[in-house]
Specification:
Chain lengths: ~500, ~525, ~120
């Protein structure tokens, strides 16, 4: 039972090496394993709700508590979601596949085996094209995607650190036990060089977008519904074989994925340069320090004793059904973005800003509601982007709909509002004052479009500034602004500046 | 078919007779239940068939049946009001369920097995939970953590296993019906050595939901009784599709009662009955072989065409079985870990506290499981290990294919196959306890059918001339072939009764202290 | 009575199989989370050896062209609709627990690491 006897003579720790320097000596090889919790209504093998945040042990039954005698039943929706993921990742869908038992003891796993898939995953041999942000596309090859179930959650109580070691006892909540998971495993990612951390991040980001578009998961990394393990090894520039890898577990944000890969490259390079060797082990990423810490050595890892789950029958996806799913796949996010950018005529920079702000769907809906792409983009990317920043929320969380933004845009286009008034209307909507028309009515924000009233104001302004009127008459049109400004002031901003300018010119008999 | 007169007579009746008397209100279900509870009181100290007797629950269930009949409602099923003994591996909500193991002592299930639900819905009165080898691992019921059950025919002998409690309860007239489970012979071998009837349906024929798993790909729940008709009636109550068991056959229960009637009226005329060359001869007790030969003669006289069939791979059956079963059970029994239910050993023998969950698991499992269970868990852990899987588990699954193919070829020549159910009659308690290999041989004849998943049952074929103990005849049907199996069983039972004037169960000793 | 006994003249992997060591038995016991006494380790070493020797003969006939049977029942694609079914009441879920705290199962400290 000596689980932690990993006596080795060469050093297993050393100073970190600068990232760029490390990459001059070594090529990184990465494998990324992503676990995604499916957004089904029920668990993988029982009818308990698949829900986050319920009171402990309230979403449990004999099956997911592994009571004696209980038996699993496969969630049809989970199989469909797993198939969709496989198709979207350009995988082959198995003709026949099975569930297998992965046997190991752990208190958060009630059966003490995980029902998973072993040598027969539902999807295999695919790829995902990843945009590295500067227009460069990197193809990540997918080894497999398979179905399995999540474990329960343990809380460690007592001791000094509140972590596993030093805890006096642990408390177990099995609400999450049995939640459907799909594990997506890449083939070794080679040839990235310095881009390895960026590729890792971009891959997880692309996968997240893809899963969201498919509607198979809420992909909340902060809630653990998308979790990434980063396997990384280094090989010397002249080497022909992969080096020993480490597995950094549960890296829980996009930024952490990048940082974890970066740190492992520097750390491993440091050890190898000092003449040491890498220990095959699991490591843990520390969000606070940006470093990975040593975990469990793998050479004493359990023998999982996989065998086909005898309580379940094989999954044989009907080929017609698979083709129907394939035909119904939603447009993939990156293809869709390219199409929309072209349709809208946005520059790369404009599009990237919009994507970064998660505003693509909002602009699409605003355009659908009648705004021009330019109007929609300028509202969401500029003014509403600032408002969202001030409130510390995302664009989608702002209390305004694309339809409301489109309505305001239309009023501006028709001259019923000018830019300044339009912003006030938007502010009113954000303040919960109702629809744009309600805000306009309540705040009295309509543009003064009565030419007679405007003419009076123009006449008064010209009379008040005869010198300026003379300049305009003599052709110095840049002086018009001063008169328009005076009229706008007199009408408390409610005039259409364009119309005022026309009236000034026509009053003075000057051609615009 | 005597008229029901006194209370003591009630326990000698068949389930069919009792059901009809209850339905016609000649006797109340409460009286019937009380009679059986009294019988248990009188004899079970000696027999030890029951681990738990649910007296009050049973009487309440019986009263509910009586009230329903009093209101003029139709009986819930053809067995409404009839008492039954439930093997203690089938969970029943709120009733202690131990699987014969210390590790589950005191556990009260918060749910019902599908079989339990169906029994209750049928108005069948569950008297209590019967003894078994721990987690159904054994052929003698000696592996129960709660002490052995004794064979009513000779209290110094074993009642078979793992379902020795259910079989003994029938043979001791403590219950007219019982539920068993059969992984490698746990229904058929106890039936054989207690002179009772027990059927293992086609794999998937009866829901396993709520039945504590031994080897999931082999386990099957089945009916036990003293007559073929009673067995068939119970079969129809518990069989049929259950969506909670993914391996459940999506078909309604087979009409086995009709098949029994047909066997009783038409016999076996025109049927081809195969004798498996490999299931007899060497290793079979003389009295068993003799009884089997007489059974063949009886069937021949009844008009059956007897053929010999060759199943060359059967000789590998036992080896394959003792790889598949330990492998699956090593995984199935992993859930008994002291975390959520059952025994938790938290202290060392010196009284100090065990610090970690991992050590508590190991200590609890080390102390909570008996020797045979631990032996099989170790064996299965080994057989599934990386590097050994192909040679052991993988090869065993291939043997299974070869045995299935043997059966398929045999059923081209025969409608059903027959053999002795067990190579020997009941042996003495303790006789084989220290020799696991000798114990495993008890299942020699029953294991091929288990590996192939076909239906198979044991009916009494008579009394062995060498030991004076009952012998069982195994009848095996093709997959989903419950109808020809029951037909032959019923025909044989009728022919036996005609020949001998009495059925084997009625020859069982009355037992001292019985009312 | 030869079914489980050594098949004599036949060469099987059983014949070539080295005997189980006591360390191997201890490792199996650890994998299976069984705390065994010294005498149990000895007993199981002996008994497992005998049984393994006998059952290894399955590989004699398990040739590459034979498909394994994993299920006696030839069903495929058995699914449940994704519809919530009421489970256990919270109290019933915890009722059999050796110890509970804050609505959860209380267990001794967990030493290993999560998978």
């Amino acid at each position: 039972m000596n689980d932690h006897t990993a006596a080795t003579s060469p050093p297993v720790e050393a100073e970190l090496i600068d990232f760029d320097e490390a990459l001059e000596l070594f090529d990184p090889v990465m494998g990324l394993e992503v676990h995604v919790e499916l957004g089904t209504a029920t668990k993988m093998f029982c009818g308990c709700p698949n829900a986050f945040g319920a009171a402990p042990n309230t979403n449990v039954c004999p099956v997911c508590l592994a009571l004696p005698g209980a038996m699993p039943t496969v969630n049809a929706q989970a199989v469909e979601y797993a198939t969709l993921i496989g198709l979207a990742l350009n995988c082959e869908i198995a003709q026949l596949c099975r569930f297998s038992r992965k046997n190991y003891f752990y208190p958060d796993m009630p059966k003490n085996f995980q029902t998973s898939q072993y040598d027969e995953p539902i999807a295999s041999n695919g790829h995902l094209d990843v945009d590295l942000g500067d227009g460069e596309i990197f193809r990540v090859e997918i080894e497999r995607a398979h179905m399995e179930e999540d474990t329960g959650k343990s809380t460690h109580v007592g001791g000094l650190t509140g972590r596993i070691h030093g805890a006096e006892y642990s408390l177990l909540d099995y609400n999450r036990a049995g939640v459907p998971l799909v594990e997506i495993v890449t083939k070794p990612i080679v040839g990235t060089g310095k881009s390895a951390p960026v590729v890792a991040r971009a891959y997880v980001a692309a996968l997240r977008d893809l899963l969201l578009t498919l509607g198979v998961s809420d992909v909340r990394m902060d809630q653990g519904s998308l979790r990434c393990d980063v396997n990384l090894s280094l090989m010397r520039k002249d080497a022909t074989e992969f080096g020993t890898r480490t597995e950094t577990k549960n890296v829980n944000s996009l930024r952490s994925v990048e940082r974890a890969a970066r740190h492992e490259i520097s750390r491993q390079a440091g050890i190898l340069e000092a003449g040491g060797s890498i220990v095959l082990e699991t490591r843990h990423f520390d969000e606070a320090t940006g470093e990975t810490g040593s975990g469990r050595p793998k050479e004493t890892a359990e023998d999982y004793r996989y065998f086909p789950e005898p309580d379940l029958v094989p999954v044989v996806p009907d080929r017609e059904w698979v083709e129907t799913l394939r035909a119904g796949l939603p447009e993939l996010p990156w293809l869709r973005r390219a199409r929309l950018q072209q349709d809208w005529g946005f520059t790369d920079l404009e599009m990237r800003d919009l994507v970064a702000a998660d505003g693509v769907v909002l602009v699409e809906q605003t355009v659908a509601a009648g705004a021009t792409p330019g109007e929609a983009r300028s509202w969401w990317n500029a003014y509403l982007g600032q408002r969202a920043n001030e409130r510390g929320v995302t664009l989608t969380e702002l209390p305004i709909t694309p339809e409301q933004v489109a309505a305001v845009s239309a009023l501006v286009r028709d001259g019923a509002l000018n830019a300044k008034l339009a912003r006030q209307v938007i502010d009113g909507v954000l303040a919960g004052e109702g629809e744009p028309q309600d805000v306009i009515a309540a705040r009295g924000l309509a543009v003064v479009s009565d030419d007679a009233a405007l003419q009076t104001a123009v006449d008064e302004a010209l009379a008040a500034q005869p010198a300026i009127a003379e300049k305009i008459r003599s052709g110095k049109l840049q002086a018009v602004g001063a008169v328009v400004g005076a009229v706008m002031k007199a009408t408390r901003g409610q005039a259409d500046a364009g119309r005022v300018r026309e009236l000034v010119l026509s009053t003075l008999g000057v051609e615009g | 078919m005597s008229a029901v007169s006194t209370t003591s007579d009630l326990t000698r009746q068949t389930a069919a007779e009792l059901a009809s008397a209850i339905a016609s209100r000649e006797v109340s279900a409460v009286e019937v239940t009380r009679a059986h509870l009294d019988r248990i009181d009188a004899v079970d100290t000696d027999v030890h068939a029951f681990l738990h007797v649910s007296g009050e629950k049973a009487l309440a269930a019986a009263a509910a049946v009586d009230e329903s009949l009093q209101r003029g409602e139709a009986p819930a099923s053809p067995l409404a009001g009839v008492p039954l003994a439930l093997k203690d591996i089938v969970v029943q909500q709120g009733v202690p369920t131990t699987a014969g193991s210390k590790i589950l002592e005191g556990w009260l299930p918060p749910y019902d097995a599908t079989v339990t639900q169906r029994l209750v819905a049928a108005g069948i009165v569950i008297l209590g939970k019967t003894n078994l080898d721990e987690f159904a691992m054994g052929s003698s019921t000696e592996n129960s953590a709660y002490g052995p059950t004794r064979n009513p025919w000779d209290l110094t002998r074993i009642p078979g296993g793992s379902g020795g409690g259910s079989a003994a309860a029938l043979a001791a007239f403590e219950a007219p019906l019982a539920i068993g489970t059969d992984t490698g012979g746990s229904i058929r071998q106890p039936a054989s050595v207690t002179g009772t009837v027990g059927a293992k349906p086609t794999y998937g024929g009866v829901s396993r939901y709520g039945v504590i798993a031994l080897a999931s790909s082999l386990d099957q729940v089945g009916p036990c009784a003293r007559t073929v008709l009673d067995t068939a009636m119970l079969h129809e109550v518990i069989a049929g599709h259950d969506p909670r068991d993914s391996t459940s056959i999506p078909q309604p229960a087979p009409k086995v009662v009709d098949a029994v009637r047909r066997g009783q009226t038409d016999g076996v005329a025109g049927m081809r009955i195969g004798i498996v060359k490999q299931l007899g001869g060497d290793g079979y007790q003389a009295g068993v072989s003799e009884s089997f030969a007489k059974a063949v003669a009886t069937l021949t006289a009844a008009g059956a065409e007897i053929v010999e069939v060759d199943c060359p791979h059967f000789e590998y059956g036992l080896a394959a079985y003792y790889l598949i079963l330990p492998s699956e059970c090593s995984s199935n029994l992993a859930r008994f870990d002291a975390m959520r239910y059952g025994l938790r050993v938290e202290k060392r023998p010196d009284g100090t506290l065990i610090e970690s969950a991992e050590q508590v698991m190991a200590a609890t499992r080390g102390q909570g499981f008996g020797a045979e269970v631990k032996r099989r868990i170790m064996l299965g852990t080994y057989a599934l290990s990386a590097g050994y899987y192909d040679a052991y588990y993988g090869s065993a699954q291939k043997v299974r294919t070869l045995i299935r193919q043997d059966f398929e070829r045999a059923y081209e020549q025969a409608d059903v196959l027959i053999s002795p159910s067990s190579p020997v009659t009941a042996f003495a308690i303790g006789e084989k306890a220290d020799d696991p290999m000798a114990m495993y041989l008890n299942d020699l004849a029953t294991i091929p059918g288990s590996l192939a998943g076909i239906p198979a049952m044991s009916v009494p074929s008579g009394i062995a001339s060498d030991t004076g103990l009952p012998v069982g005849l195994q009848i095996m049907g093709p997959a989903l072939g419950e109808l020809p199996m029951y037909r032959v069983a019923a025909a044989f039972e009728a022919a036996y009764l005609a020949e001998h004037g009495t059925l084997v169960p009625d020859l069982a000793p009355a037992l001292e202290g019985a009312p | 009575m030869s079914a489980l006994q050594d098949s004599g003249s036949e060469v099987s992997i059983a014949a070539q199989q080295p005997a189980l060591t006591r360390d191997e038995v201890a490792h199996l016991a650890h994998l299976a989370r069984l705390q065994l006494t010294e005498s149990e380790l000895d007993l199981y070493r002996e008994q497992l050896d005998v049984v393994l020797h006998s059952v290894a003969r399955v590989s004699e006939i398990a040739t590459a062209d034979v498909e394994p049977t994993t299920h006696a029942v030839q069903l495929v694609n058995v699914y449940r609709e994704d519809v919530v079914v009421p489970g256990l009441e919270h109290a019933a879920a915890l009722a059999a627990a050796p110890a509970t705290d804050e609505g959860r199962f209380r267990v001794p400290q967990i030493l290993g690491e999560e998978e």
